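Listing S7. Sequence submitted for prediction.
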Amino acid sequence: MSIAWIIVADAGHARIFSAEEPNGELDEIQTLTCPEARLHEGDLVSDSPGREHNASGSGSHDVGHTSDAKQEAAIRFAEQVSEVIESGRIASRFNRLYVIAAPAFLGILRKHYSSATSQLIAAEIDKNLTTHDAIEIRKQLPKQL
């Protein structure tokens, strides 16, 4: 039997659907969330920026954080999503993969696919459809999965 998985994701939410028939409906099988994605940058960073004093004694300025906490949260979430996909591939739960993701998150997610998983990707769509229902998501996919 040919089973397709459809991943619909953004930096804070991922939904995994399965389609057991090439023309079939989507069945939502798993949902993943990243609570950090909903927080403001300031809520993710516990400390305030450090201060650096000017050597001439004429003042000081903030020394910002060198990393973007929201970006780091998105990377961790992409790793989590890719681990679920990888587990499904290893367990032979699908043999084709469709990925629909917000453009920025799609770029992050691509970096975490194994080469074996990459070979199963039938299509990628750079749209954020995480809040759409299964019928609307299905309309974005080829008629034959």
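Caption to Listing S7: primary sequence and predicted structure tokens for the chain studied. The chain has one domain: 4-39+67-139. The chain is about 30% helix and 25% strand.
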